Amino acid sequence: MKLKGKKQILLILLIGSAVVSLFYVIQVSVDASLARTLRHKSRVMCWIPSVEKWLKDRVKAVNRTWVPRCDGHVFFIKTNKTQHNDVISFDDVKDGREFLTQKSVAALIYLYRHELGKYDWFLKGDDDTYIVMENLRFLLAQYNSSQPVYLGHLFKKFVKQGYMSGGASYVLSRQALRKLNEEGFQKSKCKVNGSNEDLDIGSCLEAVGVPPHNSIDKYGRSAFHPEPAETHIAQDAVDPWLVAYNRFKGAGGRNCCSELTVSFHHVKPAEILVMDHLLYRTTVYGRVPDFSRLQGLFEPKTIPPPS
Amino acid sequence: MAMKRMTCGNLQFILGLALGITASFMLTSYRQMSQSSVMVHLDSREHIKSNQDLHDLDEHAFHEMMEKNQNIPSVGGGEAKAVKFEDEHAHHDDDTAARDLAKKVRVLVWVMTGPQNLDKKAVHVRNTWGKRVNKLLFMSSQWNSTFPTIGLNVSEGREHLTAKTMQAFRYVYEKHFDEADWFMKADDDTYLIAENLRYMLSSYDTNQPIYFGHIFHVKDMPNGYASGGGGYVLSKEALRRLATQGHNTSICRQDGGSEDKEVGRCMTRMGIKLLQSVDRLGRSRFHCFGPETHLQGGYPEWYLSRDANGAKKGLDNISDYPITFHYIHSAKMYALEYFVYHLRPFGILSKPQDLNLDLKH
């Protein structure tokens, strides 16, 4: 039957949309809709300090796996070897252990000046850290980024309220980053040189009133880890100095690590790729995780200093 | 008049189809770019510095080297402690489909071990993947009623692996033939994902004389053989033949040589076919090494010259439903268990994929 004008167009569109839906149905083998709703709730900026010699393996590994899952990212590397626009080089900050704090301060000032309005959360990662971004967002969804929030693996030494391990990666809310800059760096209240960047930044955060917040789940398992998974799981394998620093005792074995773990540290580049495959590709036939049971896994609260 | 009408109708249909196809391509490429689970492509020309010494070792020497350099994380430098991996109170997966399949496709796995390895290796198998097979047996040269292990009439040592294997299969045939549909050999440093094994086997008939594993090709064995390290699994008919005809020394070598090659020769002589075990996308499921080796390459020479599928590497060459990994030492076994069965990226759901080979062509 010959159709006229509008009806003709309508029929074409109908057939077109039928084909589109068919393609859609066939294409989807991963349902990421739940993960995606979380993504829109909190925009995370990941910043990773590194050095030129690690460009080819460590930086490459993280850049191909978890870094693209951040909403924004920047590498702070002193180099002219790359033209990438996600690499920032501070010419007046030298490489080396003694300059780690200086580098982090420069990074945090840079982020305050250029990225504060665009993101809700600022994650410091290392080039040998693996981050499960979806689990980070799950944890962050319970916190308010306009409050001063500070998350990570808590050490109890040297700072009364404690400080987060740099290697295990730590997260600052937008308000925390603002306070750090406006009340800390700009008022010269904080140590800006040294080799223990996590301790120095943590000390500054205490000085400007940003308390540490909880990332231990209701089964007593932590989300941020200063060592690789196999070290934490194999009992008695963690260095005693590390154990002595931990604010919370934590268990070895299965209870070391939350089901919604966020980070592992000291992960070699090959292992970074392995973890990505095991988490996002390797599937167990016939088992479907029930994410609804994980609501309320982490209790959102500040951690008071030890009495 | 009639011709003209038909052409008009066809034109509308073709236009609609073209519009739909264009829109779909645009939509799916947009989805791929913005999806939170990122497709990562490893540059296969990348050259990670491989240990040249490791590269040139032959298979036996390579195995010895792997045994020695396991890099087990521990403060004292000893073995990793056994870890209990129960998680029922915290962990709720919906595994109905997996459990249904376990009833239909029953798998018996016997693990090659020895008295000196019970606490170092076998216990970690028992604490992790061993729980998920239908029946698990540990084959040793000594009986141990508490572990438990079965004492075969063999001496320990790599020179006697063939005898151990032959006797193990015979034992399984005599005592446990009716308890399973498929019979698998694994090492005590193999990691097995039983659900994915069952998924692959569900396409096949266990009354056929067939077996599966990671396929190697060598000149004097054109039909190939299954790598011992990657694990291999026999159908009921294959086991029946091996157990009843395997005594015959003109068919099967009783001891010595390489266990996997000898079993392979045996199978060929008894008319048992080694079938392909890659998935529909040509990606490997049985693996001779750990995931990091298969992802980044740096394979030793003996693997490069033997692998039937071109010794591929990288993210796109391992199946989403892998079945085994090998050279997995204790602490890594728990780490694998944790990553495969416990740690989850929140909100990412993998739907069932149709990855078995299409057998109907």
TrEMBL record, chain A:
Group of enzyme by EC: transferase
| Enzyme Commission no | 2.4.1.122
Looking up Gene3D superfamilies in the UniProt record yields: 3.90.550.50
Tell me a Gene Ontology molecular-function term this record carries: nucleotide binding
The answer on whether this UniProt entry bears the keyword Transmembrane reads yes
Q: Where is the Fringe-like glycosyltransferase domain?
A: 47-214
Pathway of this protein? Protein modification; protein glycosylation
Similarity comment: family membership: Belongs to the glycosyltransferase 31 family. Beta3-Gal-T subfamily.
Record-given protein name:
N-acetylgalactosaminide beta-1,3-galactosyltransferase
Q: Which organism is it from?
A: Littorina saxatilis
Automatic annotation (TrEMBL), chain B:
Which cofactors must be present for this protein to function?
Answer: Mn(2+)
Q: What's the source species' lineage?
A: Eukaryota, Metazoa, Spiralia, Lophotrochozoa, Mollusca
Keyword terms, alphabetized? Disulfide bond, Glycoprotein, Glycosyltransferase, Manganese, Membrane, Metal-binding, Nucleotide-binding, Signal-anchor, Transferase, Transmembrane, Transmembrane helix
Fringe-like glycosyltransferase domain: which residues? 109-277
What is the membrane topology listed in the Swiss-Prot or TrEMBL record?
Answer: Single-pass type II membrane protein
The subunit field of the Swiss-Prot or TrEMBL record says: Homodimer; disulfide-linked.
Name of the protein in question: Glycoprotein-N-acetylgalactosamine 3-beta-galactosyltransferase 1
Group of enzyme by EC: transferase
Q: What does this protein do?
A: Glycosyltransferase that generates the core 1 O-glycan Gal-beta1-3GalNAc-alpha1-Ser/Thr (T antigen), which is a precursor for many extended O-glycans in glycoproteins.
Q: What is its main location?
A: membrane
Which family does the entry's similarity section mention?
Answer: Belongs to the glycosyltransferase 31 family. Beta3-Gal-T subfamily.
**PANTHER family in the record:** BETA1,3-GALACTOSYLTRANSFERASE (PTHR23033), GLYCOPROTEIN-N-ACETYLGALACTOSAMINE 3-BETA-GALACTOSYLTRANSFERASE 1-RELATED (PTHR23033:SF14)
Tell me what organism the protein belongs to. Answer: Littorina saxatilis
GO CC terms of this entry:
membrane
EC number in record: 2.4.1.122
Location comes to: Membrane
Pathway stated in the Swiss-Prot or TrEMBL entry: Protein modification; protein glycosylation
Molecular function in Gene Ontology: glycoprotein-N-acetylgalactosamine 3-beta-galactosyltransferase activity; manganese ion binding; nucleotide binding
